Amino acid sequence: MEMLTVLYLGKHESEEKRQEAVDERKRALAEKAWELFHDWSRIPGTQDDGSIDETELEAWIKEVREKAAAADRIAVADLTIGNVFAHSPIDPDGN
Questions:
Q1: What pLDDT is stored for residue 22 in this prediction?
Q2: Which residues partner with 46 through β-bridges?
Q3: Contacts of 47 (CB under 8 A, 6+ apart)
Q4: Which ranges of 1-95 does DSSP label H, i.e. alpha helix?
C-alpha cells in the first residue's frame, strides 16, 4: 500500500504538493514501486500447490483497501488489485 502513495497522488492532493515533495530518492523509490506493480505475478494467499487461500486473500484485500482509504488512494488501490487478479491462475474447472 505504501508504494501506491509513492506513485499516485491522493484524490484531494494537488500536483503542486507532489512536486514540492519529489526528490531524487523518492523518484528512485517510485521507479522501484512501478517495477514491483508491473512485475507482480503471484496472487496474495497463493499456496505452494498453486491453490489460493480465500481467507488470506480476503484479509489482504481488506487491509489494502482500508489503508488505501486512509491514504486517499482507494481508486488506484482498486485498479491495482484488479491488475493483480489479472495474473490469477485458471480454476481447475476452467474459469
A1: 63
A2: 52
A3: 53
A4: 2-7, 15-21, 24-39, 54-70, 74-85
